[in-house]
Write a sequence for this structure.
């Protein structure tokens, strides 16, 4: 048992749980005003692009908008397929394949 | 209920290979960095937040102070506040005990799948997805600690791209009104700009709160 490693792990576990549980418990059991409901509806529309676009366009702190950047093409494939309501599994598989192929030939 | 659980599970299969492979990579790296298998499993079970674990392991190996590691973990995981707030109304009928368990399973991928499938999100879709993601990650970590990362460089196979691919696909199917497009595009621009200047996951937290908050103040509440 290495106490210090376990202390770090438990500290990480506690602070991570504190990011997950409080709002879930606090907001699950009360009716919310309309403007707060609107805000909660809009959060995914803001969070999902905020997760995705920096993964596609930012590489080690630099903007990569080059056409030779495989994830850019992968992202275009994914957005086109998804907006045509192609199945999620197929969409993601084709996006991943696009990136893998372009990296292999590039 | 069981049908929605299955829907969430099946929808998550697009991510299972990538989550599993990254789990093996994490397990392999952590063992190479000097952690024992039991410590790696304990961390993956108790913290269960891949990105922050990838950040913490090299810090541990380099002998960073425990406080620095814990604070960094907190900052990287602050995005959970947004996801928890968004998912909360879906869990109205659940007991406190259940909520306490469900909260621990919160992850980016299951959040994305639950909010894209139904509005408001279906709690059982989220639980089905969390089961798939959790199983894939923990299974991958166990394999990784025993035999090392299955793939030396997952990016070579495009596996890193599965994560943004799912997030992009799930936002694309939600863009119905013009306001939706504006929120998504503004958030993308703000997030990229912040990611260029700030380390960690600040771009997700700031763009997620600020853009959705401003839009909620500006739009008529009836479109909720």
């Amino acid at each position: 048992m290495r106490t210090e490693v376990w202390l770090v792990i438990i500290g990480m576990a506690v602070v991570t749980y504190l990011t997950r549980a409080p709002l879930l418990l606090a907001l699950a059991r009360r009716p919310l005003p309309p403007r707060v409901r609107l805000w909660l509806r809009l959060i995914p529309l803001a969070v999902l692009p905020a997760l995705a676009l920096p993964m596609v366009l930012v590489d080690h702190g630099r903007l990569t908008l080059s056409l030779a950047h495989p994830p850019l093409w992968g992202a275009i494939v994914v957005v086109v397929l998804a907006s045509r309501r192609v199945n999620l599994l197929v969409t993601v598989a084709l996006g991943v394949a696009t990136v893998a192929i372009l990296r292999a030939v590039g | 209920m069981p049908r929605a659980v299955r829907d969430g599970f099946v929808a998550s299969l697009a991510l299972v290979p990538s989550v599993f492979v990254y789990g093996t990579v994490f397990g392999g790296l952590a063992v190479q960095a000097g952690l024992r298998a039991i410590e790696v499993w304990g961390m993956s079970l108790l913290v269960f937040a891949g990105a922050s674990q990838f950040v913490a392991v090299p810090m541990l190996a380099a002998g960073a102070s425990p406080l620095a590691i814990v604070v960094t973990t907190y900052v990287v995981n602050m995005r959970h506040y947004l996801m928890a707030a968004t998912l909360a109304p879906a869990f109205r009928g659940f007991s406190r005990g259940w909520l306490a368990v469900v909260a621990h399973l919160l992850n980016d991928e299951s959040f994305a799948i639950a909010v894209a499938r139904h509005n408001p999100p279906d709690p059982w879709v989220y639980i089905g997805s969390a089961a798939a993601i959790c199983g894939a990650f923990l299974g991958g970590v166990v394999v990784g600690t025993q035999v090392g990362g299955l793939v030396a460089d997952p990016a070579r196979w495009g596996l890193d791209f599965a994560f943004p691919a799912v997030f992009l696909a799930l936002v694309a199917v939600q863009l119905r009104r013009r306001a939706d497009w504006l929120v998504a595009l503004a958030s993308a621009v703000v997030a990229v700009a912040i990611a260029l200047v700030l380390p960690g996951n600040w771009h997700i937290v700031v763009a997620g709160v600020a853009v959705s908050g401003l839009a909620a103040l500006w739009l008529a509440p009836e479109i909720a």
User: Anything to note?
Assistant: The radius of gyration of chain B is 18 Å.
